[in-house]
Design a protein that fits this description.
The chain has 179 residues and is mostly helical. The chain has 6 helices and no strands.
């Protein structure tokens, strides 16, 4: 009987010491639908036909690229469209610029979203830290500090000034080094 009782008590003690494992950190991922909303839509104010016509009119690739930059045009080209434009005589430098500018715009949009989420996370973390610190300090006093004096009453209460005692009614206790 005593062995059973000791076994039950020891089982209860070991069960009380058992801890649960921490859940793994959750990573908030961007869904494909959110990604589609984040990425900027390609806006082409200069059509691809105009670019091909400029190329056939023997304009330099730099002039065509400047025209695309000035119009702030962006194109979402498939590999088949890229091959077709190359066959129609569009210079490879222009095609490279079109692809690079499109990728750069996508990267900038994603980086902006990451920065926005990081700022939101940092703000939430700051609020949680402030709440944690306030909860840890159960003796928080909003009037403690330089505005009201370190020991209540520095600017307002100096009852015992000149009375020979620097200690009076708990006010001005040792303020500032005038024991």
């Amino acid at each position: 009987m005593t062995k059973v009782l000791i076994l039950i008590i020891s089982a209860m003690l070991f069960a009380g010491c058992a801890t649960t494992a921490q859940p793994p950190a959750q990573i908030k991922r961007i869904t494909p639908e959110e990604l589609a909303l984040l990425l900027p839509l390609p806006v082409a104010t200069v059509s691809l036909d105009e670019i091909i016509n400029d190329s056939k009119e023997s304009k330099t690739p730099e002039q065509i690229i400047e025209k695309i930059k000035a119009s702030n045009s962006r194109y979402e080209l498939t590999p088949a469209q890229t091959l077709d434009l190359s066959r129609q005589g569009l210079n490879i430098k222009v095609l490279d610029y079109i692809h690079q500018s499109n990728e750069l715009a996508k990267q900038n949009a994603i980086a902006d979203e990451i920065n926005k989420r990081e700022k939101e996370r940092a703000a939430a973390e700051k609020i949680l830290k402030r709440e944690r610190d306030a909860a840890r300090n159960s003796y928080y006093d909003p009037f403690w500090g330089p505005r009201f004096g370190g020991f209540y009453g520095h600017p307002f209460y100096r009852y015992n000034r000149g009375l020979g005692s620097r200690f009076g009614f708990g006010l001005n206790y040792g303020y500032p080094f005038d024991w």
